[in-house]
Design goal:
It comes from Anthostomella pinea. This is Uu.00g110880.m01.CDS01. By secondary structure, this protein is mainly beta. The protein has a domain of about 270 residues: Jelly Rolls. Helices cover about 10% and strands about 30% of the residues. It has five helices and 19 strands. The strands form two sheets. Strands 1, 3, 4, 5, 6, 7, 9, 14, 15, 16 and 18 form an eleven-stranded mixed sheet that branches. Strand 15 and strand 16 form a beta hairpin. The protein is globular, with a radius of gyration of 34 Å. The termini are far apart.
Length: about 400
């Protein structure tokens, strides 16, 4: 055998031994495909080979697939939707502006600008200046229990003392419930405040807005609600509950009442929607109540014909709507109430522990129209759910 033939045979022997150039599945050892080779993270594969990126990591799309739009094409809008912004109280006029509140500061740090309704839209704003008495803006109801008409077997004694309602140096209203069950004076064991605005809504259409931080604890029942101007017949002339929560359940109850509980027909006159707000005790939640009763009219007995539209909104989101029931008091005659109750049937017999429970009212105002205008109200009306029978 010639030298060249020996060399050729030797090469064929080496090919068979190392499977070089043989198809997969042939020979004594299977070839390793380049794409299945393992590399340490960050290690560059040999030139010309390709490595599958680990699951969940990004890879460059193939030509013809999505790519970054060129300048002038679509891009992510930089201005957030106005009605998804976090709730922030409106600014106080510069001549009496306090330091920013914790809630407002936190929201501004998140990059969302505060809501700033035009001055012409706000026709009334409660004055929380610390140099005036609370009684100048609100009637301070007083009394303890059912003889005064509070109902529900509640524990609190409502007072006009500064220990239960006050304006703070940074222009907030505090509605304070104080629980001290061991106090020797029964009238001092559970004290609180029940405030009623000295003015009514006064208009056939408008928007009532409050920014509230609500106390959350067992046996505590804060409320922001409305009743007709006194004297009135409850509940037939109506009741609207805008912010109402109890027993630290973090559920807000938006309600409309206009009947007793004595018959099946009466049960249809109590409507409610619940909204879960898990952080209601730690920030200013925005509550809006919008009414549009301009065409409903008034009956000969001075009661409403009904038919006006009502909507409850929380942090810019409509949560409940209903028509104004006939026989209720015209909406112009309604007042606003703020109070913190304790115990009673609503709290399922639970009493609060020793302590102080504050409802912080950051701002309270009435406007000619809701934020976004009446066109937005019309749009929201169609998608908002009606109140459900309790």
């Amino acid at each position: 055998m010639s030298f060249l033939n020996k060399l050729k045979n030797k090469a064929e022997e080496l090919n068979r031994k190392h499977n070089i150039g043989l198809p997969l599945g042939q020979g004594s050892q299977q070839q390793t495909h380049p794409s299945s080779q393992q590399y340490y993270p960050g290690q560059q594969p040999p030139q010309g080979q390709w490595q599958q990126p680990p699951q969940g990591q990004w890879q460059q799309p193939s030509q013809g697939q999505w790519q970054q739009p060129q300048q002038g094409q679509w891009h992510q809008p930089t201005q957030p939707n106005t009605y998804n912004r976090p709730a922030v109280p409106p600014p106080i006029p510069s001549h009496s502006r306090p330091p920013p509140s914790d809630a407002a500061s936190h929201t501004q740090q998140s990059g969302a600008p505060p809501a700033q309704p035009q001055a012409s839209q706000v026709y009334w704003r409660a004055n929380f200046h610390p140099d005036i008495p609370v009684g100048q803006e609100f009637e301070q109801k007083q009394g303890h229990g059912d003889p005064y008409g509070w109902g529900n077997n509640e524990l609190e004694n409502y007072t006009s003392h500064a220990s239960n309602s006050l304006f703070t140096p940074d222009h907030k209203l505090i509605v304070r419930a104080v629980s001290q069950p061991q106090h020797p004076d029964p009238e001092a064991r559970y004290t609180s405040a029940r405030l009623v605005t000295r003015r009514t809504l006064g208009r056939a259409r408008g928007c009532l807005t409050a920014w509230l931080t609500l106390p959350c604890a067992e046996g505590v029942w804060p409320a922001f609600w409305m009743l007709p101007r006194e004297p009135f017949e409850w509940p037939h002339e109506g009741e609207v509950d805008i912010a109402e929560a109890w027993n630290a359940e973090f559920q807000n109850h938006s309600c409309l009442h206009w009947g007793a509980y004595n018959s099946p027909e009466d049960m249809q006159k109590h409507l409610v929607r619940q909204t879960h707000i898990p952080d209601m005790g730690h920030r200013a939640v925005r509550f809006d109540f919008v009414w549009d009763c301009g065409t409903s009219g008034v009956r000969a007995d001075g009661k409403s014909n009904g038919g006006g539209r009502l909507m409850w909104i929380i942090d810019g989101r409509p949560v409940m709507k209903n028509l104004m029931p006939p026989g209720t008091r015209p909406i112009e005659d309604w007042c606003v109430l703020l109070n913190v109750a304790m115990g009673g049937t609503v709290c399922q017999g639970k009493a609060p522990r020793d302590g102080i429970y504050d409802m912080v009212v950051h701002a309270l105002q009435m406007s000619e129209e809701p934020e976004g205008g009446w066109w937005k109200f019309e749009n929201d009306w169609h998608g908002c759910p009606h109140g459900a029978v309790m």
